Amino acid sequence: MPPFSAKSFSGRRRVLWLLIVFAATAICLGSIVAMMIYADAHDTVTAQNLVAHTQEVRLTLAAASEQLDRIELNAELYSYVGDKGHLGAAEQASVALDSLAARLKVLVVPTSEQEQETVQLQAAAATLALRVDGLKNHWYSVESDVVACRRILTVLQEQEGVLLEQRDAAARRENLNAMIRRAIVIVVGTILILVLFGFLIRDAVRSGHFEKRLSRTNDQLRNTVGRLEEQAFESRLLINARDEVSLSVDARQAEECTVRYFSELIPGTAGSLYVTNNSRQIMESVGSWGVVRASAPVEGFAPECCCALRSGRPRWRRPEQSVLHCTHFLGEPPERYLCLPVTAHGETLGVVTIECQSHEAITMTETREESAISLAEMAAMAISGLRLRERLELQSIRDGMTGVFNRSFMEVALDRELHRSARQQKELALMMVDIDHFKQFNDTFGHEAGDLVLRLVADSLRQGVRTEDIVCRFGGEEFVIILPEMTPDSAVERAEALRQQVKQLAPRFRGQPLRQVTISIGLALAPQNGEGAEELLRCADRAMYTAKHRGRNQVVQIDSGILA
Taking Cα atoms as reference points, which of 421, 441, 431 lies closest to residue 472? Predict the structure, then answer.
């Protein structure tokens, strides 16, 4: 054994201090990177919440604008024709406008300019409601009140647009700052690690007594770098998933994107993504990854079949931890699997099942469980937003009873097709369809039978026209069919075919056959009978009433403004 010397003692102490500094630096770097990842994730979620809030405000503003248009249109129609149905529609729209104004006041930031505008909007909406209510006994215009409400909505929309731009700019600045911070940490950390590693190599060469300790330190360094690389990979993957999910145009694309990124995040596993169906009673499989065994997940199951959905939080199933299995597997369930609920705003949208088929898959899943939860939350927010947008779009253009387009969409589509026909110098046909003696269905068999007849007739009309033709419910038992690029002879043939097709219907309600269903059709052509939408609708309506007076169950055509 060599004699003890002050030099060797100093060398050992220096190596010890170097090791301590090295370990402290690695811990600090790991903590800093972890804090940066947490801060970036928090900023991302905050930015998404802000954007979601802005989108909700803008959707509410759009809905309020739509209700305002309905008030103006129905009030004007009431002033022209005196139909109390239009007055009732205007009153309903005014109630909806007042509710939306109250919702906007809740959504906007207190003590802001928007709050003052929403207060003014509530007052203007209340005044407009009083004015609409007063239409019962007086004939005057609500145009000034509508203009006042529209002005306030325009100001709010402009303010939300400015706010959205500010939030986008702040998000971009934050991303740039995050990139700079990461670059600084990586550069500084790399420099520190290289300097410390150089000192360790020099001391190891000088003294063989520290080789074992140096090897252990190198192992720690490799583990630290591995953890940093793992965290960087997960961070990049989540950022890419967020960007791609945000670009999805519908919920189906977002679901496919989620499945793909789950397969990349946890390789070596097999799993499936389930989402709730329209009835919210069944979880349906929308995608899977990996090679599943004989215990493949089922295509659909009730929510109570999954323990994670019942508990509302992620759940591991391991033999040493739990003996209770989920029942959404075919055959013998796997020994180890993880179920992640997909929820957004307190609503359960689905569940992700991850089956671990090997020890490596178990380790990988446990290591990246937090990232998997973050990916599920990100997907839930995107799917929830896309589903909400799809529901709003569908409700704005479709009739809830029959599934065909509603009257508002018909007015827009008719104007568009008339302009297109005029530009292309082609003819356009318009059919006004009315179900004969429809009131007898309601009086004899009840309103449910009447609703059944409406749906059957709507389906028959939709099946009997071309893909480019537009079938709309005009109101009550009346339908309007827009047929672009249709000659007069073809239009008459099409109308007769539709009449015969409806006549062949054999409706049954609760096992009881109903009477025969017939329709009367009024046919008008553009530009022969008019170039404007109102004029064309008026001609088709006159033709339809003429068909009624002539005995119903027939087609009457307007020929150059004269009944034929």
Answer: 431
